[in-house]
Every structure is written in C-alpha cells, then in structure tokens.
Amino acid sequence: MHIAVAGNIGSGKTTLTSLLSKHFGWEAHYEDVDDNPYLIDFYNDMQRWSFNLQIYFLNSRFNQILSFRRSGKTLVQDRTIYEDAYIFAPNLHAMGLMSTRDFENYFTLFTMLSSLIQPPDLIIYLRASVPTLVRQIQKRGRKYEDNIRLEYLKRLNERYEAWVETYNMSRMLIVDVDSYNFIDKQEDLSVVIDKVSAEIHGLF
Questions:
Q1: Which of the residues 19, 73, 132, 136 could staple to 128 if both were Cys, CB 3.0 to 4.6 A apart?
Q2: Is the pLDDT of residue 5 over 80?
Q3: Is the pLDDT of residue 184 over 70?
Q4: Per DSSP, what are the bridge partners of residue 127?
Q5: What pTM, to 2 d.p., does this model score?
Q6: Cα distance between residue 98 and residue 95, in whole Å
Q7: Which H helix or E strand runs over 81?
C-alpha cells in the first residue's frame, strides 16, 4: 500500500510522515531536500533554476514510485509527483519564473511519466493557513527558506485548494493543520492517526 502526504511548504509533511511511519510500522520515504543540488540555487534565483529544479524532482519522484511498487511494502511518502506538476511548476510559470517553453516541455514529460505509474492508494492533504506555514518554516530554521515570500506561499495555497477540488484518482484525507497541531500535541496526533486508520480500513 502506498500512502502519500501532500501539502504546502511548512505544512508538516515530513513530521507527519515520520510519525505515521513510527505508529503503523510503515517504511518512510522523504523528499530529497538535503542532497538536492538545485534547491539553494533555486531560492536565490528562482527564474534561473526553476526548470532544473522541477526536472530534478520529477525524475526523483518517478524513480521513487517505481521502487515503491517493486518493494511490495506499505510505504508513506513525503510529497507526491502531482504537486510539482499541478501546483509548483504552474505557479512558477504564472509568476514569470519559468518560461512557457520550459513549462510545456516539463508538463509533456510529466504527462508521459505519470501514465506509467499508479497513484497513491491514499493521499493525506495537510491544509494550513499562511501564518501557520510561516510559523512552522521559521521554527525549523532552514537557511535557504529565509527568502520565501508570503505571496509565494499564498499562491501555492490557492493552487493546492484548486487541485484538491478536482483530484479523483484515489482516496484523499484532508487534515486541517490550523485545527490539529499534531507536531506539538499528542491528543491532536491521536485524532489524525484515527482519521488515517479509518481511511485505510476503507481501502479494503
């Protein structure tokens, strides 16, 4: 079974992936942040490095998914291949930070690769307001994220909501991070785990 955690920058994806992995005994797969050769350059100059970054993520996530299905294990993944294609890349294009030529090239490649894979059995979408995102980004203190603008987070949130409205390839559980602080409150984590358990039982 393939579970994926989706959400904006700072929504708590990595933390929830880790917590679910420990609780259910699932194998966790995290977004390639520390070893990503483009991320720091991207935050310093988004227009120059946006296409390179999105191609790197597409390649990384596609290969991750192939390995998931081969393993036969139950896995929980930090971020999905769909978020780059329907949220991050279109947002960069709309902001003038990725050329139309590069965006069309990227999306054609995504369309081809996505036709070769199965979607996750369950996506857990972490919905969070911009103030919550900012607070959690500041709390984790990644230096390269200091340059993230509020407008950028706001635009991403709008695209996430539009994607969630139309997503129909598998089950999706929405967790309101403003209401459930699963990072700091054990009782809130317990509620989220119960919601996830109910969704999993519905898959069988």
A1: 132
A2: yes
A3: yes
A4: 176
A5: 0.90
A6: 8
A7: helix 81-83
The domains found in the chain, sorted by start residue, are 2-201 (3.40.50.300)
Regarding predicted confidence, which is higher, 15 or 32? 15
Q: In this structure, what DSSP letter does residue 146 have? A: G
Residue 155 identity (one-letter amino acid): R
Q: How confident is the prediction for the chain on average, in pLDDT?
A: 91
**Given 32, 78, 102, 194, the catalytic residue:** 78
Apex 131 CA angle, 44 and 172, nearest 5: 95
For the question of residue 78 being annotated catalytic, the response is yes
Question: Of 191, 171, 170, whose CA–CA distance to 179 is shortest?
Answer: 191
b/e 6-17 (16+ beta carbons within 10 angstroms → b): bbbbbbbbbbbb
- Provide the token pair at 61: 């996530």
